[in-house]
Structures are given as C-alpha cells and as structure tokens.
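=== Given protein ===
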Amino acid sequence: MRRAVCPGSFDPIHKGHLEIIARATNLFDEVVVAVSTNYAKKYMFSEADRLDMVRESVSGLAGIRVQAMGEGLLAGFCREVGAEAIVKGLRSSLDYQYEVPMAAMNRHLTGVETVFLTADSRYTHLSSTLVKEVQSLGGDVSDFLPKAALRRLGTAR
C-alpha cells in the first residue's frame, strides 16, 4: 500500500487544504492527514476541534485517515505510520523556498520523499492566518472554508 502524509495545523482547514488532500488521494492508496500542534504557537481551535473539523471536512473522500501528529518531527511521524511520502501544497515560490530545505531534511532523516502539488489558482492567496484575520474583522470568508470550519467560526449561512 502506498501511503502519504499530508500535514498541517489546519487552524482552520480551508478549501485550499482540501483541494491538495483530494488530489493526494489520486496518487496514493491512503493519505494520513496529520494534524500538528506546535506548543509555541497560539491556535484559535484546540487540537480536538481541529481533528473533528478535518474529519468532517474530508468525510466524503475515500482513502483518508485523520490523526493527531503531536509535536515531534514529521519524519518520525511518517516512519510511525509507514508513509513513503509527504504531500505539500505550494502556493508560490515563497512556499517552495520554505519547503525545499525541510523536504531535504526529511529525506535525509528517514528516506521519506516530499511530493509538491501546486495549488489551484482559486486558492493561491489562502492561508488559515489570512482567513482568521479577515473573519475577525467582519469579512465574509464563506467562499474559502468548508461547512465544518464555517460553523466553528460562527459564520455558517
């Protein structure tokens, strides 16, 4: 079985994340969506809420398992779940510059490869941080979030 990990904090999950996850299911038999937590970072949603939000958002897709990654190394998590690849979405050259050194380190540590998928042009401007900022200032983010995230933000229509 070909297994990949699609990691993120998903605070909240948005349609750009979902588009990359869905495309990953076409490349691998199983995609483990790893919900990460960095205890140095402030989150809007608890890990349990983020896990529930992701599970609900991917429930219509086959071949997906959602799991908490914890705070360890992504390479170690990949080894634990038997993944041969990490799938990352790239929105711009800045993402590429940030992700390439991490991909090299993950390959060095455990031999796991990183597969980069370019984001759909509808989502290249999206980030969870930007969505939260726009929403907190009264902007409409309903075009960018799945229903599970909209409900939790209190903006479901």
Observations:
- The helical segments are 15-25, 47-58, 74-81, 93-110, 128-136, 147-153.
- The radius of gyration is 15 Å.
